[in-house]
From TrEMBL:
This is cysteine-S-conjugate beta-lyase. GO terms for molecular function: cysteine-S-conjugate beta-lyase activity; pyridoxal phosphate binding; transaminase activity. Residues 32-377 form the Aminotransferase class I/classII large domain. It is an enzyme of class 4 (lyase). It comes from the Bacteria. Gene3D superfamilies: Aspartate Aminotransferase, domain 1 (3.90.1150.10), Type I PLP-dependent aspartate aminotransferase-like (Major domain) (3.40.640.10). It comes from Meiothermus hypogaeus NBRC 106114. Belongs to the class-II pyridoxal-phosphate-dependent aminotransferase family. MalY/PatB cystathionine beta-lyase subfamily. Keywords: Aminotransferase, Lyase, Pyridoxal phosphate, Transferase. Its cofactor is pyridoxal 5'-phosphate. InterPro entries: Aminotransferase_I/II_large (IPR004839), C-S_lyase_PatB-like (IPR027619), Class-II_PLP-Dep_Aminotrans (IPR051798), PyrdxlP-dep_Trfase (IPR015424), PyrdxlP-dep_Trfase_major (IPR015421), PyrdxlP-dep_Trfase_small (IPR015422). SUPFAM superfamilies: PLP-dependent transferases. Coiled coil: none annotated.
Length: 386
C-alpha cells in the first residue's frame, strides 16, 4: 500500500516547506494541522505541470469556466442542483470565505450561533469582528454526537443573524443526517437567519451521506451560502482555492463587496489542480478514503484496548479524532503533557470552544505505523500519570 511507506524522516523535508512537520521540535510526531502526509494524486501533479506550459497571467476574475462547470457537476452529485456559474464565487481559500460570510451577513454586535466544538476560525472571525458567538454544544449521547435543539432555541435573541454550520463537522467528524439538517433549516427560516454552511469535508466520509443544507428546498437555499474547496479532499492546502456557492446571488454580491481589494484573484495553478482533481483523481480519492477508514478503525480499537479512559467517538467523516482527556489528572495541561512527555503534537481542544480544555484533536491522515507510534507514545504517558 503506497501510503504505508511514509517515514518521519522524509516527511520532515529539509527545506522547511511543511508547516505541520516544522512547527514542533524534531522529536515530536506532528498530528495536528489538517493536511495529509500522503502525496497528491499524479493527475493533479500532471495538470499543474501542464498548466505551467502556458502563460500564467491574470485569469478571468470569475474563474476558469470548465472548473466552474465541474464544481457545479460535483455539487449536483451531492444533491445541490440548479446552480449556474453565476451562483459561484471563487475565493483564495475557504477561511477568507468564512470571514467574508461573517462580515457580509452580520453587523458588529450581532449574534451568530454555531455548534461547538467547531473549526476555530468560525469563532475567530466572530470575535475579531466584534460579533457575538453563541455556542450550541453538541451533546454526547449513547448513539454519538447530537445537536441540542432545545438549547438551540434558547440561544435566539433579537440580535441573532447567522447560523454557522460545519458539515461534515470539524472536529467531531459528525456527518449530519437529513432529519437534523431539516430541523436546522426550519429553525433558520423561522428565525430569519442567514446560514453559512462550511462543507469542505464533504468528500471524506466513511458512514452516512453528505447532504448540503441548501439542497433541502428553495427557501433555505435562498438564505444559505455553502463553502467548499479542494484542499481537504485532495491535500492541496498549500495551493489555496475555495468557492462560495449560493442560489441567492445577493449573498454572493455581499461577500464580494466585503472582500473587495483584499480578496485577491483566483490562482491559476490551484484552478488547474482542482479541475484535474474533480476530473481525474477519483480513484486516488477512493484509495485515500479506504486507507483513512482503516486508520480510523485502528484508532477505535487501540483506544478501546489501551486507552479506555479517553472519551472518543469514531468520526463518520474527516480524518480527525476528537479525544476527551478532560477526566485525566493532567486535563488542564493535556496539550502540553502530550507534547512534552509523549512527544506528540496535537491541536489543543480549547481553541474549538471555551469548554474544551482537556480535549485534543488528532489528525490521522498519515501512515498506519505513524498513527500507531503516536498512540503508543500517548498511552505510555497516560499509563504513567494515571
Ligand atoms: C471546516 C474547515 N473549513 C476551512 C478550512 C480551511 O480551508 P482553507 O485552507 O481552504 O482556507 C478547514 C481546514 O482544516 C476546515 O476544517
Amino acid at each position: 500500500m503506497q501510503f504505508d511507506n511514509l517515514s518521519a524522516h522524509t516527511l520532515r523535508d529539509p527545506h522547511g516547506y511543511s508547516g505541520k512537520w516544522h512547527f514542533y521540535p524534531e522529536d515530536v510526531l506532528p498530528m495536528w494541522v489538517a493536511d495529509m502526509d500522503f502525496p497528491i494524486s499524479p493527475a493533479i501533479r500532471e495538470a499543474i505541470v501542464e498548466r505551467l506550459q502556458e502563460r500564467i497571467g491574470y485569469p478571468q476574475m470569475s474563474g476558469d469556466k470548465q472548473l466552474l462547470n465541474r464544481i457545479i457537476q460535483h455539487q449536483q452529485q451531492h444533491g445541490l442542483t440548479g446552480l449556474a456559474p453565476e451562483n459561484l464565487l471563487l475565493t483564495t481559500s475557504v477561511v477568507p470565505a468564512i470571514y467574508a460570510s461573517v462580515l457580509a451577513l452580520s453587523s458588529p454586535g450581532d449574534e451568530a450561533i454555531t455548534q461547538v466544538p467547531v473549526y476555530h476560525p468560525f469563532l475567530f472571525a466572530l470575535h475579531e469582528h466584534h460579533r457575538v458567538a453563541r455556542y450550541n454544544p453538541l451533546l454526547r449521547t449513547a448513539s454519538g454526537w447530537e445537536i441540542d435543539f432545545e438549547q438551540l432555541e434558547s440561544l435566539v435573541t433579537p440580535r441573532t443573524r447567522l447560523l454557522m454550520l460545519c458539515n461534515p463537522q470539524n472536529p467531531t467528524g459528525r456527518v449530519f443526517r437529513r432529519d437534523e439538517l431539516e430541523r436546522l433549516a426550519e429553525f433558520a427560516l423561522r428565525h430569519r437567519l442567514w446560514v453559512m454552511s462550511d462543507e469542505l469535508w464533504a468528500d471524506l466520509i466513511y458512514e452516512g451521506k453528505h447532504i448540503p443544507i441548501a439542497s433541502l428546498g428553495p427557501e433555505i437555499a435562498q438564505r444559505t451560502v455553502t463553502l467548499s474547496g479542494p484542499c481537504k479532499t485532495y491535500n492541496t492546502a498549500g495551493l489555496g482555492g475555495g468557492v462560495a456557492i449560493s442560489h441567492n446571488r445577493q449573498i454572493l454580491a455581499a461577500l464580494a463587496q466585503v472582500s473587495k481589494g483584499i480578496g485577491g484573484h483566483p490562482n491559476v495553478l490551484s484552478m488547474a489542480a482542482w479541475r484535474a482533481a474533480l476530473e481525474h483523481a477519483q480513484d486516488w480519492l477512493q484509495e485515500v478514503r479506504a486507507y483513512l477508514k482503516v486508520n480510523r478503525d485502528f484508532i477505535t480499537s487501540f483506544i478501546h484496548q489501551h486507552l479506555p479512559q479517553v472519551g472518543y467517538l469514531p468520526p463518520e467523516g474527516t480524518y480527525l479524532a476528537w479525544l476527551d482527556f478532560s477526566r485525566a489528572p493532567f486535563a488542564q495541561d493535556a496539550h502540553k503533557v502530550m507534547l512534552e512527555q509523549a512527544k506528540v503534537g496535537l491541536n489543543d481542544g480549547k481553541i474549538f470552544g471555551p469548554q474544551y480544555q482537556g480535549w485534543l484533536r488528532l489528525n490521522f491522515a498519515t501512515s498506519r505505523n505513524l498513527v500507531q507510534e503516536a498512540l503508543e507514545r500517548m498511552a505510555r504517558v497516560v499509563q504513567t500519570v494515571d
